[in-house]
């Protein structure tokens, strides 16, 4: 007897089925779909028409280097590329070692690199080679991460710990290394400055924030009241005020020769101080979420207070607040645009200076749209990467 | 017991971190002694101006207001506050280099001080915070087309340098609402006027309309380019700014320049020039005399190209100016050949004007030498 072969019931999958189910299921849904499409067309048509025909995108092309690095000496540009290659390497290595947790960031980095290669080729600019190298380095280190032995995780951690001081050294230079001449921070600009401020602000603020959070929960009154006072003082004023304080008032109180000469360093200190207060509250939220039983279990195992904190409580607390930490990261990234008011050329201020070029007067829409895309693109990448990280670490699930 | 240990650990960590943060701020310590020593060195030169021989260091009189200049010399760079988004005056070009009329004066001072026109750090300042930046010492000199006024000089505690550019405020309106260039403010009754905030322009606008008894609505923008954009889009009926800006930016930004009229009406005098904080007298001397030197050089026909030929000139005026003869520079704490350096590395006043402003179609006009009927006049170098 021949077996009757039965087809499994057709699942409604695929785009056509989806369309049918969601947009064209009933006659009034069909009507609504077409109405919405018509409305979208009417709204988007002028914008698209402008973007494709009227917009003078040459302003972006002509000033791309300015947008990216500002006044940074052009002959030292290789240093910026080197930091990007190194970033590619670190992301690749992390991907190879931590797999799931770093995959989101790795895919984003790889995709961005590919996109820039294509754009570079289309615009006939030779930057595509640099992005090809960055992507190649990423993949090479991914392979390396896969074959590394068990100690891989500590190697990668060490790598990240070294990475940030190293890029700072690379970008800033030093007079002790002849082939790395110092580049004064007031020559940093554009996206480079925006990212450096974001990175330094966040990296500097996190340890300080953890200490403040621990301090606020401490039983020693001096420590507790200092932490509370600091956090509430900083949280009670707008970031602009902190920046003005750091930049204008601090030098005003100091004698001429003691003034920190460097506006970028002053601003970085301001950012770290400001962000630390917010990170402290984020971390405190995580600490409060840790069950009393965790402390007791640690004590039962004979762990000291410091070990309980560093091995049991903090890892769980920090994992629980990953979304909040990234939230602060993103908001600081956007807040860096405030440095324009104290004379630094972050990417938004560069946009304004580009608008003043007599060749490109009246290109407000193009320039600001470009700045919008930069900010948005970065934030999209951050959020995507952090969401993948959360999933991999089981935030909210365990 | 354990908890205390933890807390002590945390405290120790905190103090290390705080110390590290403190270390990040470049705050040199133990300076006062050095300052005193260096001050003595400068004044030594000053005192020797009349003496002649190098061997006898005369105990110097203390010169008031020389601290800032000394700090600049020790630092090795001049920090100059500039505009940043005004092409022709102070502007970041696509290659990331600073260009413009005001910027070149910063280079001229650096050349006079350090014999290096690139020993300048530029800080772009907005119209609102430029004077605060000067008062707080964020910048040494402000060269950001700022108008010299009584209040700024007196109340804000600034010392203005010589005028480097004579400008005047004007108003531009749409051709369909005013009869022609000869129109008065009365023709602008009830008009919306675009203006940049924090400028003397904004204040003059209010004064002029109040004096004429005409009502108007100011539309205020933080940046000049935004004001022009808004005017071009029809958000205001008229725009006011310095005449030079209306002519240059108007031509470049407006869709159809012929549809607009710049009124003949002169709304104000706008003498633009550098400023230093009050009390920095030595620095102010330097700022003044370098600019005068550049004007004097133009009057004598000395340019960056031919300045070396003038070194052998027999004319005592030329010889004193270039420091071949006499000890003029050392009297204000500078090298005797400070004008030579400036002219060699940057150029005379006319060269700076031609390089930066002529490409925008600006004529010399009031900014020509006094010998050509302009207002540029340098006191004698002697």
How would you describe this structure to a colleague?
The complex is a heterodimer of chains A (398) and B (382). Chain A has 398 residues and is mainly alpha-helical. Chain A is built from 17 helices and no strands. Chain A folds into two domains: 114 residues, no CATH class; 174 residues, Orthogonal Bundle (MetI-like fold). Among the domains of chain B are: 28 residues; 102 residues, 3-Layer(aba) Sandwich (D-Maltodextrin-Binding Protein, domain 2), CATH 3.40.190.10. Chain B is built from 15 helices and 13 strands. The chains are: A mainly alpha (398), B alpha/beta (382). Chains A and B meet through helix 4, helix 9, helix 11, helix 12 and helix 14 of A and helix 1, helix 3, strand 2, strand 5 and helix 5 of B.
List the helices and strands and how they pair.
The complex is a heterodimer of chains A (398) and B (382).
Chain A: H1 14-22, H2 27-54, H3 58-62, H4 64-69, H5 77-98, H6 100-122, H7 127-147, H8 152-172, H9 190-216, H10 221-235, H11 239-253, H12 263-289, H13 292-300, H14 305-320, H15 322-335, H16 347-355, H17 364-393
Helix pairs in contact in A: 5-6, 5-7, 5-8, 6-7, 6-17, 9-10, 9-12, 9-15, 9-16, 10-12, 11-12, 12-14, 12-15, 13-14, 15-17, 16-17
Chain B: H1 2-24, H2 32-51, H3 67-75, E1 78-82, E2 85-86, E3 90-92, E4 98-99, H4 101-114, E5 120-124, H5 130-135, E6 141-147, H6 150-154, E7 158-160, E8 165-174, E9 191-196, H7 200-212, E10 216-221, H8 224-232, E11 238-242, H9 243-253, E12 260-262, E13 268-277, H10 281-300, H11 307-310, H12 316-321, H13 328-331, H14 338-345, H15 349-356
Parallel strand pairs in B: 1-5, 1-6, 9-10, 9-11
Antiparallel strand pairs in B: 2-3, 3-4, 6-13, 7-13, 8-11, 8-12, 8-13
């Amino acid at each position: 007897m021949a077996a009757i072969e039965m087809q499994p019931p057709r699942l409604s999958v695929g785009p056509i089925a989806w369309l049918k189910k969601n947009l064209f299921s009933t006659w009034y849904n069909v009507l609504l779909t077409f109405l919405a499409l018509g409305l979208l067309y009417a709204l988007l048509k002028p914008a698209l028409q402008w973007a494709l025909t009227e917009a003078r995108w040459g302003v972006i092309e002509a000033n791309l280097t300015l947008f990216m690095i500002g006044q940074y000496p052009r002959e030292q540009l290789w240093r910026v590329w080197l930091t990007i290659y190194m970033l590619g390497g670190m992301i690749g290595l992390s991907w190879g070692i931590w797999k799931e947790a770093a995959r989101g960031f790795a895919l984003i980095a790889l995709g961005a690199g590919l996109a820039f290669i294509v754009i570079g080729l289309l615009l006939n600019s030779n930057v595509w080679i640099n992005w090809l190298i960055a992507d190649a380095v990423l993949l090479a280190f991914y392979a390396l991460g896969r074959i590394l032995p068990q100690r891989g995780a500590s190697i990668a951690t060490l790598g990240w710990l070294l990475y940030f001081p190293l890029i700072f050294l690379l970008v800033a230079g030093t007079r002790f290394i002849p082939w790395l001449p110092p580049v004064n921070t007031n020559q940093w600009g554009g996206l480079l400055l925006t990212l450096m401020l974001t990175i330094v602000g966040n990296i500097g603020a996190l340890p300080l924030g953890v200490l403040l959070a621990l301090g606020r929960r401490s039983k020693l009154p001096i420590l507790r009241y200092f932490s509370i006072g600091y956090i509430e003082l900083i949280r009670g004023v707008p970031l602009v005020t902190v920046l003005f304080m750091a930049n204008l008032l601090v030098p005003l109180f100091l004698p001429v020769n003691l003034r920190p000469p460097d506006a970028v360093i002053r601003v970085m200190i301001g950012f770290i101080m400001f962000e630390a207060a917010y990170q402290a509250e984020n971390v405190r939220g995580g600490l409060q979420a840790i069950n009393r039983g965790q402390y007791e279990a640690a004590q039962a195992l004979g762990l000291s207070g410091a070990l309980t904190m560093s091995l049991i409580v903090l890892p769980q607390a920090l994992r629980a607040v990953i979304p909040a930490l990234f939230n602060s990261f993103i908001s600081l990234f956007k807040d860096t645009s405030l440095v324009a008011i104290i004379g630094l050329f972050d990417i938004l201020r560069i946009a304004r200076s580009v608008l003043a070029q007599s060749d490109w007067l009246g290109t407000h829409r193009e320039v600001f749209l470009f700045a919008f895309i930069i900010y948005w693109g970065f934030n999209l990448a951050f959020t995507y990467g952090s969401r993948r990280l959360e999933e991999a670490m089981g935030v909210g699930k365990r | 017991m354990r908890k205390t240990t933890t807390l002590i650990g945390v405290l120790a960590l905190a103090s290390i971190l705080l110390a590290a943060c403190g270390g990040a701020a470049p705050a040199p310590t133990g300076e006062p002694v050095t300052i005193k020593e260096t001050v003595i060195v400068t004044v030594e030169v000053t005192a020797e101006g009349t003496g002649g021989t190098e061997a006898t260091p005369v105990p110097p009189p203390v010169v008031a207001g020389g601290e800032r200049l000394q700090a600049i010399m020790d630092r090795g760079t001049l920090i100059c506050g500039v505009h940043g988004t005004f092409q022709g005056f102070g502007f970041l070009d696509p290659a990331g280099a600073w260009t413009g009329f005001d910027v070149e004066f910063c280079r001229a001072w650096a050349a006079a001080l350090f014999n290096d026109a690139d020993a300048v750090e530029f800080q772009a300042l907005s119209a609102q915070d430029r004077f605060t930046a000067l008062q707080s010492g964020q910048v040494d000199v402000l060269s950001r087309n700022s108008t010299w006024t009584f209040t700024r000089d007196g109340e804000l505690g600034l010392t203005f340098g010589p005028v480097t550019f004579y400008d005047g405020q004007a108003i531009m309106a749409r051709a369909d609402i005013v009869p022609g260039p000869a129109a008065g403010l009365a023709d602008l009754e009830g008009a919306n006027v675009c203006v940049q905030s924090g400028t003397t322009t904004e204040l003059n606008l209010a004064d002029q309309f109040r004096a004429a008894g005409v009502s108007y609505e100011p539309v205020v923008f933080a940046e000049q380019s935004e004001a022009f954009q808004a005017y071009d889009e029809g958000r205001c009926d008229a725009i006011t700014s310095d005449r030079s800006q209306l002519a240059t930016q108007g031509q470049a930004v407006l869709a159809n320049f012929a549809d607009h009229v710049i009124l003949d009406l002169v709304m104000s005098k706008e003498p633009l020039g550098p400023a230093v904080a009050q009390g920095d007298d030595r620095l102010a001397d330097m700022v003044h005399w370098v600019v005068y030197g550049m004007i004097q050089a133009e009057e004598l026909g000395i340019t960056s190209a031919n300045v070396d030929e003038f070194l052998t000139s027999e004319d005592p005026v030329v010889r004193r100016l270039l420091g071949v003869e006499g000890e003029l520079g050392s009297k204000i704490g500078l090298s005797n050949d400070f004008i030579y350096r400036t002219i060699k590395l940057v150029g005379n006043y006319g060269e700076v004007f031609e390089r930066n402003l002529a490409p925008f179609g600006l004529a010399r006009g009031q900014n020509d030498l006094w010998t050509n009927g302009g207002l540029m006049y340098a006191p004698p170098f002697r």
